[in-house]
Design goal:
The complex is a heterodimer of chains A (516) and B (123). Helices cover 34% and strands 9% of the residues of chain A. Chain A contains 15 helices and twelve strands. With 123 residues, chain B is of the alpha+beta class. Chain B has one domain: RNA polymerase II/Efflux pump adaptor protein, barrel-sandwich hybrid domain (OB fold (Dihydrolipoamide Acetyltransferase, E2P)), CATH 2.40.50. Helix content of chain B is 20%, strand content 37%. Classes of the chains: A alpha/beta (516), B alpha+beta (123).
Chain lengths: 516, 123
């Protein structure tokens, strides 16, 4: 094994925790926390972890195309490889380690019951090409989850196949485009409020629409007069996020939808923040025509790299005929899948197929397990606790951190702060990095863009008051240092395995391959 | 050569019917370290107030809007390899693109330097 990395935190460096400085180890490891080199630095390309027989010359049909250069792959045995990644994972921070307060992301606990259900062989060992008669239970899960999503949102129907939130957005916008085209009313513009999710304009542009912004009011909500002034025969849809990315409920949502409909356009609602209102507000009652639901946000399926994502789209009666194929339909005594070959009769106006198969089955089982284990009263409590936790954070910190919309009333599921009041030279980035030293994953930074130096904190319903109090204590102390101009904040994180990385250099000159 | 400014923090310097456009020192300060710039291709027709270029910093990606309508005559190729020019010389070597102005009358609504300074001070 080569020498461990020379960079990064080491015992004995000046920044080491009190009492640890001066202790040297020959390996650079610290106790059972191991300093980890790159995988290429462990296994040279001249070694191999497995014994492969020499290929027979007779079977080489590559002609002159056979590779003459070595592959340059590290040669490690299975245990060496497993240990490398396990050691790296111990330096990772995950929702199973502690609070993950990323606003707009909704990092909530993944209940182990979901995992147990998803691993049942009757679900886990299925293949999407199995005959329908052998997967009736799985199709029943899709149908039952669809029923719950329709009921909770007060919508007409749901497209289950989209593979993630942004994919769901695209599905909804393609339904809107198909509906407009079906009535011979091609329109070219989609309006997106400043307080919408960042993926919304990207979706609209990807679907071929021009994107125009609608400004936010000083209260952080959609400027209804400005929206009304812009609506016209060229506007296909409004893409609105409710609750919005300032963590605020759009109180005028019904008036917004009515104005959009009166102009002949449709309402797409980004349902990423449905977790704040589930069990209490039905978007269908607010005039929404299409809304995706991120199962990981509202219904606790794994997030990010632990995914995959899943973004079912609930649709109004006006859009339902245009939903994508394939979909599950209940028939006498069971369920059937409507695919292209039979789709012409069953769904003549469908805009087509978005995915190879019928959705993220592994996420459907987890989401349904979550819904059934909570029930409707439990889901009401989920949104209530999420909002309560966010307001507890907001009111526990708004005397040391500027809360730009704190004066307008309670927030929803996330608390938004700005860098107003920080001493010159101290930035939101410094505060976020200092949270790492205190043992917390930082909050979302510099988003939403409508707030200067934004810090968006989303505790979710999962955190106990004890955890929130610890987080508040840490953030309060860092905020006070930021206001006092404590320049040592620029050095943070000082106690992490790696210090502050050069994000600028990494973005300008990324090194994406190992060059030994 | 006269130089004008927009409320979206672009500057435009006019030389006859050719204009050079970039983002202001205030804008680069707000964005932080610039890591990527996408300038419009030569020949692109730009409309006043519409997206013309993209600037990406470690914090965010932002649109740069055309202060006036026109046809792009040159993009600043140096920004491809050295986006940091926008930080070091935003109102000089860090210019974004040049265009041939369609309607010089569109310049009338823009701010001069004194007005822009007062505008920034009010933010």
């Amino acid at each position: 094994m080569n020498a461990p990395n020379s960079s990064g935190w080491k015992p004995g460096t000046p920044e080491a925790p009190e009492g640890a400085s001066g202790i040297e180890t020959v390996t650079g490891n610290r106790g059972l926390m191991l300093e980890e080199p790159l995988i290429f630095e462990i296994g040279g390309s001249d070694t191999c972890g497995v014994d492969l027989p020499e290929p027979s010359r007779d079977t080489n049909r590559l002609g002159g195309l056979a590779r003459s250069e070595p592959l340059g792959l590290p040669g490690l045995s299975e245990p060496e490889t497993v240990r490398h990644y396990t050691r790296l994972s111990r330096q990772n921070y995950a929702i199973d380690c502690g609070i993950f307060p990323l606003g707009s992301c909704t990092m909530k606990h993944n209940p182990r019951l979901n995992e147990k259900v998803a691993r049942m062989p009757g679900f886990a060992d299925l293949h999407p090409l199995q005959p329908e008669s052998t997967v009736q239970g799985a199709l029943g899960v899709i149908d039952e989850l669809a029923h719950w999503l329709i009921t909770l949102t007060g919508m007409h129907s749901v497209a289950m196949s989209p593979k993630a939130g942004a994919h769901g957005e695209l599905c909804g916008i393609l339904c809107i485009r198909a509906a407009l085209e079906a009535r011979g009313d091609a329109r070219s513009v989609i309006l997106v409020p400043e307080s919408a999710h960042g993926t919304n304009p990207a979706t609209a542009a990807f679907a071929g629409y021009a994107v125009e912004n609608i400004p936010a009011t000083a209260e952080g909500r959609v400027d209804l007069p400005a929206l009304k002034a812009r609506l016209g025969p060229d506007v296909a849809a409004l893409m609105i996020t409710n609750p919005n990315t300032c963590g605020l409920f759009e109180r005028e949502m019904k008036a917004i939808s009515d104005a959009v409909h009166a102009a002949g356009a449709l309402v797409y609602c980004d349902g990423a923040n449905f977790n704040a209102i589930v069990g209490r507000v039905r978007p269908g009652d607010l005039g929404v025509d299409a809304m995706h639901i991120n199962l990981h946000k509202t219904f606790s399926t794994p997030h990010g790299g632990g995914g995959p994502g899943s973004g079912p789209v609930v649709l109004s009666e006006a859009l339902a005929p245009f939903a994508p194929l394939p979909f599950v339909r209940a028939v006498e005594g069971g369920f059937e899948l409507i695919e292209e070959e039979d789709g012409v009769a069953a769904a003549p106006q469908s805009f087509g197929r978005m995915t190879a198969f019928h959705g993220q089955m592994g996420m459907f089982t987890r989401a349904l397990a979550y819904i059934l284990s909570h029930g409707i009263d439990g889901l009401r409590q989920v949104s209530g606790d999420a909002v309560l936790n966010a307001n507890y954070l907001l009111r526990s910190l708004d005397d040391v951190l500027d809360a730009p919309f704190g004066g307008t009333g309670p927030c929803m599921h996330e608390a938004l702060f700005s860098d107003e009041g920080f001493a010159d030279g101290v930035a939101t980035l410094d505060v976020a990095k200092a949270l790492i030293d205190e043992g917390f994953h930082p909050m979302t930074m510099y988003f939403p863009l409508v707030v200067h130096g934004a810090m968006l904190v989303e505790p979710t319903e999962c955190e106990s008051k004890a955890t929130l109090d610890q987080f508040i204590l840490a953030l309060r102390s860092i905020a006070e240092r930021a206001k006092a101009g404590d320049q040592s904040l620029h050095q943070a994180p000082r106690l992490a395995p790696r210090r502050r990385l050069d994000e600028t250099l990494a973005a300008r000159q990324p090194v994406l391959t190992y060059e030994g | 050569m006269p130089r004008y400014f927009t409320e979206d923090h672009e500057w435009i310097e006019v030389d006859g019917d050719t204009a050079t456009i970039g983002i202001t020192d205030y804008a680069q300060g707000q964005l932080g370290d610039i890591v990527f710039v996408e300038v419009p291709a030569v020949g692109t027709q730009l409309a006043k107030g519409k997206e013309a270029a993209v600037v990406e910093s470690v914090k965010a990606a932002s649109d740069v809007f055309a202060p006036v309508s026109g046809t792009v005559s040159e993009g600043n190729a140096a920004l491809e390899d050295e986006p940091a020019l926008v930080n070091s010389a935003p109102e000089g070597d860090g210019w974004f693109f040049k265009l041939t102005i369609t309607d010089a009358g569109e310049l009338d609504g823009l701010m001069d330097e004194a007005k822009y300074k007062a505008f920034v001070a009010s933010l």
